Amino acid sequence: MIKTIAIDDEPLALQLVKGYITRTPFLELQATFDNPLDAMEFLNENEVELIFLDIQMPDLTGTEFTRILGGSHKIIFTTAYEKYALEGFRLEAVDYLLKPFNYEEFLKAAMKAEKLIRLERSDKVQEISVNNEFLFLKSEYKIRRINFNDIRYVEGLKDYVKVFLVSDAHPVLSLSSLKALEEKLPKSKFMRVHRSYIVNLEKIETVERSRIVFGKVYIPVSDQYKEAFQEYIDKNFL
């Protein structure tokens, strides 16, 4: 749902837009206002993504109000005056509805705004989800945050992975594949060295006869991954 408000100093026009918003499945009406100043106070305290905004209003016009907002909301202008169209588009309004407009015209404008808003939401989700510091794993009916720097190595079993940590003597067991986990780990820090093992390159202290040594654990480097691992060693060899 797209959180929406409407602003218009004409009661009948405001009632019409309110009805159109209520009829539209993907719009959620938060409030209506007969002047921009009251709307400004509401916007300071509430999350709103889309504003249906009249232009010709006393005290503060719709275009002046838009410039004050500074592009932080999607705007669809609703006005009886065609002369404001150019200024509206200069302010990067999503659309410009000339009164009187019907529901079909309203819906087309709303769908245009929906497309833009959902695209921005998707971009934000990607920005949030991509990181090089941690991931979440489900283990024993809980969701655990695993910091990449805390991982020593990962062992893949048939349907599970065991994540061995620096900070915990007991590995974290999670229902997942080694391949799925490999895709989540940053390649700058982790390397697949065997069909059953991924190691944190920063935690390697000893390599002995094509085996990586972690205390009493010896992790083999298989032929399939030996060349890439040797290249990493050579690049950091004195």
Structure summarized in a few sentences:
The protein has helices spanning 11-23, 36-45, 62-69, 85-90, 103-129, 178-184, 223-235; strands at residues 2-7, 27-33, 50-54, 74-79, 95-98, 134-139, 142-147, 151-156, 161-165, 172-174, 190-194, 197-200, 206-207, 211-214, 217-220. It is α/β, with parallel strands linked by helices.
Question: Distance N terminus to C terminus?
Answer: 59 Å
Reading the helices and strands in chain order gives: EHEHEHEHEHEEEEEHEEEEEH
CATH class of the largest domain, please?
A: Alpha Beta
Tally of discrete structural domains: 2
Describe the protein's architecture and organization.
By secondary structure, the chain is an alpha/beta fold. The chain has 2 domains: 2-129, Rossmann fold (3-Layer(aba) Sandwich), CATH 3.40.50; 134-235, LytTr DNA-binding domain (OB fold (Dihydrolipoamide Acetyltransferase, E2P), Beta Barrel), CATH 2.40.50. Helices cover 35% and strands 31% of the residues. It contains 7 helices and 15 strands. Strands 2-1-3-4-5 form a 5-stranded parallel beta sheet. A hairpin with a 6-residue loop joins β9 and β10 (172-174). It starts with a strand and ends with a helix. The model has no long low-confidence stretch (mean pLDDT 91).
